Every structure is written in structure tokens, then in C-alpha cells.
Amino acid sequence: QLSGKWFLVGMASRCSYLAEHSHQLEATMVMVTVLDGQSLAISVFRKLDRMCWEIRQHYLPAQAPGRFLLKGEGDCSKVDVVVGEVDPSSFAILYYQKGRSVSVKLYGRSSRVSDAVVDKFEQRVRAVGLSEDVTYYFPTYGRWHMVLEETHV
């Protein structure tokens, strides 16, 4: 259900870096490949300093369906990932929890999603105690975005 190309549409997080740099958000594309029927290979494509960067991640299956573990360097950097809701043809809402900190991300099959999907996302954001002042939407304009839309990785 999650495999293929996605665009990061919105994110809710108390991350101070995100708050300080929200004016610099760039269109971000994600390619998801299902490995061995369980784990996910994630490639995140975004622009940084006028260059296209690919960040690779590996989501390992956790105890229950729709739950994954993203391991970083060291024990303190593991992130629990939970698929909250997905419509494989249009959107996915995922929760990321690191310690007591929770973030919610909205992905779309295109860079724009319906108002109904945005409403669902915002309801889920409020349900975990986050608010609109820590909710950010990613740009859907510019030449860089066109490159991402046309990219068939």
C-alpha cells in the first residue's frame, strides 16, 4: 500500500529546528520500496544548497502491522513509526515517535491533497496534542517542484 512515489505535504512537530527554518521548507519527494514483504526502503529527495540530495532510510517491521522502527546511530535515536491512515491512491498519515516527542506527517501521491484529507490530518494533529502553530505545509510551486513531479525514480 505504501510503495511508490509520495510527496511530503504537511508536518506537525514541536521540533525547534523546523520552527526556526520553516520559511526555508522545500518540496520533498519520498520513494518507498517494500523489501522482503515487510521492511521499507525509503529514499527522501530534497533540495539543499541548489543540489538534489537523497537521504536513505530503512524502516524495520515492528510487532504489529503498520508499525515500523527507524534506527539511527546509537540506542537513543530510534524512532517508532506508525501508519495512522492510508488511502494508497491519494494520501498517508504517519506518526513518528522518538521518546516522548511525537510528529505527524501527511504524504500525498501528488503535492496537493483534498481539503477533506487536510481536515483528517489536522484532526489527528490535534488528537496527539499538537496545534496549528506547529503545523507546517510544504510548498507546491517552483522549478524544483516540477523536477520532482516529473521524476520517475
UniProtKB/TrEMBL annotation:
GO terms for biological process: complement activation. InterPro entries: C8G, Calycin, Lipocln_cytosolic_FA-bd_dom. Residues 3-137 form the Lipocalin/cytosolic fatty-acid binding domain. One of its GO terms (molecular function) is complement binding. It comes from the Eukaryota. Pfam families: Lipocalin (PF00061). One of its GO terms (cellular component) is membrane attack complex. This is CO8G protein. It comes from Menura novaehollandiae. The gene is C8g.
